[in-house]
């Protein structure tokens, strides 16, 4: 009887401890590219899957080939010379002197390095943008 009670309590304790274990959030993959700025469009009251968008930055010479970008690339067709990504309030932006700047200070026709992650299969948002 005591053995069954001890086994029951151990099983119960194990189940409780397993249920209480902290679950780590799944981290989205981040991708880094270079490109050349073409245009910047301010977005008003616009969101994608709950992510508020401040600006959309169009770039050229940005041609991701990873399989994860298949649906994203399909949006631009076979001859998609320009692609774009979104800028949110959390996007960090730096000029060529590594000084923080706002989105409206990004120079056009400027080479940049940028890190992005997917909002969904067809939308990217920038984590960081650096003028080169």
Using only C-alpha atoms, the radius of gyration works out to 22 Å
Strands across the major sheet, in which order?
Answer: 3-2-1-5-6-4
**What is the number of beta strands?**
6
Low-confidence stretches: none
Q: Quickly count the helices.
A: 2
User: How far apart are the first and last residues' alpha carbons, in Å?
Assistant: 74 Å
Order of helices and strands: HEEHEEEE
Strand content: 35-45%
**Number of domains in the coordinates?**
1
Mean pLDDT: 87
Helix content: 10-25%
Helix and strand content put the structural class at alpha+beta
Overall shape: it is globular
- How does the major sheet shape up? 6 strands, mixed
Protein name: DUF3221 domain-containing protein
Keywords: Signal
Organism: Paenibacillus residui
Signal peptide: 1-21
Would you give an account of this structure?
It is a single chain. The protein starts with a helix and ends with a strand. The chain contains 2 helices and 6 strands, in the order H-E-E-H-E-E-E-E. It has one domain (31-131). It is globular. Strand 5 (111-120) and strand 6 form a beta hairpin. The chain has 132 residues and is of the alpha+beta class. The longest helix has 19 residues, at 2-20. The protein has helices spanning 2-20, 70-74, and strands at 31-48, 51-60, 82-87, 92-94, 111-120, 123-131. The chain has a 6-stranded mixed sheet, with no helix packed on it. This is DUF3221 domain-containing protein. Residues 1-21 form the signal peptide.
